[in-house]
């Protein structure tokens, strides 16, 4: 089985989309899964959810459960399926319930500030 660890992410983290900060948190979590790069999960309360539009996409991970996806709506465009959340994660990773993670790239950045 893939080893998953979840720890508090050190420092303050921000997420930007379309050039705007849509969230900042000193309470983010860092999830490490096998050889994948770490993923920062932000408490939902620390994200400007007005920028998030639920999408029809969902995926299932045998180690975390079913993920629901959100598109990020910025002034100039919609970034499809750019965020995800495990609404009812598997018990072993229950800490990520109520948190959001983001696909990073040219349009979305997650960084420690």
Walk me through what this model shows:
It comes from Roseovarius aquimarinus. Residues 14-104 form the DUF427 domain. There is one protein chain. The protein has strands at 4-8, 13-17, 20-25, 29-33, 39-43, 52-61, 65-73, 78-86, 99-102, 108-112. The protein has one domain (4-112): Metal Binding Protein, Guanine Nucleotide Exchange Factor, Chain A. With 113 residues, it is mainly beta. Strand 6 (52-61) and strand 7 (65-73) form a beta hairpin. The mean pLDDT is 96. The strands form 2 sheets. It has a 7-stranded antiparallel β-sheet, with no helix packed on it. The protein has a 3-stranded antiparallel β-sheet with strand order 3-2-10, with no helix packed on it. It contains no helices and 10 strands. It is 0% helix and 56% strand.
List the helices and strands and how they pair.
Blueprint: E1 4-8, E2 13-17, E3 20-25, E4 29-33, E5 39-43, E6 52-61, E7 65-73, E8 78-86, E9 99-102, E10 108-112
Antiparallel strand pairs: 1-4, 2-3, 2-10, 4-5, 5-9, 6-7, 7-8, 8-9
Distance N terminus to C terminus? Answer: 34 Å
Question: Total number of helical segments?
Answer: 0
Q: How many domains, in number, for the residues?
A: 1
Summing up helix and strand content along with how strands pair, one would put the structural category as mainly beta
The whole-angstrom Rg is 13 Å
Query: Beta fraction of the residues?
Result: over 45%
The coarse overall form would be globular
Largest sheet: 7 strands, antiparallel
Extract low-pLDDT stretches: none
**Order of secondary-structure elements:** EEEEEEEEEE
CATH names the topology as Metal Binding Protein, Guanine Nucleotide Exchange Factor, Chain A
InterPro entries: DUF427, DUF427_sf
Organism: Roseovarius aquimarinus
Domain DUF427: 14-104
Pfam families: NTP_transf_9
């Amino acid at each position: 089985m893939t080893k998953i660890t979840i720890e508090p992410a050190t420092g303050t983290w921000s997420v930007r989309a379309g050039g705007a900060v849509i969230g900042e948190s000193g309470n983010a979590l860092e999830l490490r899964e096998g050889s994948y790069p770490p993923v920062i999960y932000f408490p939902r309360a620390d994200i400007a959810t007005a920028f998030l539009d639920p999408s029809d996409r969902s995926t299932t991970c045998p180690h975390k459960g079913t993920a629901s996806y959100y598109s990020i709506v910025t002034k100039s465009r919609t970034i499809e399926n750019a965020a995800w959340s495990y609404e009812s994660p598997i018990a072993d990773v229950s800490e990520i319930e109520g948190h959001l993670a983001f696909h990073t790239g040219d349009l979305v950045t997650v960084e420690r500030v």
